[in-house]
Specification:
The chain is mainly alpha-helical. It is built from 14 helices and no strands. The longest helix is centred in the C-terminal third of the chain and has 38 residues, at 258-295. The radius of gyration is 24 Å and the shape is globular.
């Protein structure tokens, strides 16, 4: 017990988390100063359940009817004939060529018949287009709501117009009710994604995405405990804008509006570059790396926080390169073809690997969900 208490005391030492000569008591929340309260980090959990309820209500009564009105199909691929032996082999997922030969011999089938059955079985597990449309609708709805809410609540905040206010008088930064809701709802959304991921569209990067969601929540908790909510709120605002357009592009693709999809994707690419490679490094990273040390005495937790923000910038650079590479190939091909789809597990595609598609671009961008960000 004493060992645990010693470890806890060392971990929560103000020498690590706070500027010199500042103690936890100095920023303890009270009636006069509503500083960030670490006990409030439990609230996003029940709020996540509420968001899940809202999501499935909207999907059932709004998004699904909208999708059907756009003639989006709710049917899946042709079902494979039930076969206990092949089903058992399929559940093992990784089937090698020697196993296919053994199965063909055991069932007295040809290799082609076994491969066709496995292909149909994989396609059978893929979600319908309407299901994917509803999922994108929900994400687009959330990102749009979060972005415009963030814009409204930050509009009258001095640090939106002069980022140095993120550091003036730090860490004595009370959390207003609107910022409190902004943070709590953002964390609740990522908790909801962590829960729903187990019964949503299955993806190849399932565990990477799960780890990402937990890392995102951890970073938001980190900035909350360290009272870095001002800079954290700006990072949230910057990152939500491009995500709206990505989900909107996917929605129009599922609805078979190719030209609209192409236009949105172009706008998305511009927004991505402006926000992730322009505003983020030259406004936020510049302030956290150059301006903040001139105003606030540095401390270990801040270096960790800023290092994660810089790591995020490097990831943005890689994803931007991939987006531009795909966009360039699509431009040379004359049009963006193919389907915008998520990385569903064991997805089978009959299209040529040389086919330049917007799907490839969005798949690369979807991997941005694996980035360590504060939202």
């Amino acid at each position: 017990m004493n060992i645990f208490l010693n470890i806890s005391a060392t971990f929560w030492s103000p020498d690590i988390w706070l500027p010199p000569n500042i103690t936890w008591q100095d920023i303890s929340p009270n009636a006069d100063n509503k500083y960030a309260n670490y006990q409030h980090l439990i609230f996003p959990l029940p709020m996540a359940l509420v968001l899940l309820g809202i999501r499935y209500t909207l999907e059932r009564y709004w998004f699904a009817p909208l999708g059907r009105s756009l003639c989006i199909k709710n049917t899946r691929s042709k079902r494979a004939v039930p076969n206990e032996i092949l089903e058992k082999a399929y559940l093992n997922k990784k089937i090698k060529y020697k196993q296919i030969l053994a199965l063909a011999k055991q069932l007295d089938w040809s290799e082609r018949q076994v491969e066709r059955w496995l292909r149909l079985r994989r396609s059978q597990d893929k979600p319908s287009t309407l299901t994917k449309f509803c999922e994108s609708c929900w994400r687009c709805f959330y990102y749009a709501s979060a972005f415009f809410y963030g814009l409204v609540v930050l509009w009258d905040k001095p640090w939106l117009w002069d980022i140095k206010h993120c550091y003036y008088n730090y860490p004595y930064h009370p959390v207003t009710n609107d910022i409190w809701w902004y943070y709590m709802l953002s964390m609740a959304f990522y908790w909801a994604l962590s829960f729903s991921q187990f019964f949503d569209v299955k993806r190849k990067d399932f565990w990477q995405m799960f780890i990402h969601h937990i890392a995102t929540i951890s970073l938001m908790c980190f900035s909350w405990v360290g009272n870095l909510t001002r800079i954290g709120s700006l990072v949230l605002l910057v990152h939500d804008s491009a995500d709206i357009l990505l989900e909107a592009a996917k929605m129009t693709k599922y609805a078979n509006y190719q030209k609209v999809c192409d236009c949105i994707f172009v706008i998305f690419t511009i927004f991505w570059i402006v926000t992730r490679m322009g505003v983020y490094p030259f406004w936020i990273i510049y302030s956290t790396s150059i301006e903040a040390p001139k105003i606030v005495p540095m401390f270990p937790a801040y270096y960790i926080f800023n290092s994660l923000l810089i790591l995020l910038l490097f990831l943005h650079a890689i994803w931007t390169y991939l987006i531009l590479k795909i966009a360039y190939r699509a431009f040379n091909a004359g049009q963006m073809e193919g389907d915008i789809r998520s990385n569903s597990s064991d997805e089978v595609s009959d299209t040529s690997v040389n086919n330049v598609s917007i799907n490839n671009a969005t798949n690369y961008v979807n991997k941005s969900n694996s980035k360590p960000k504060t939202h």
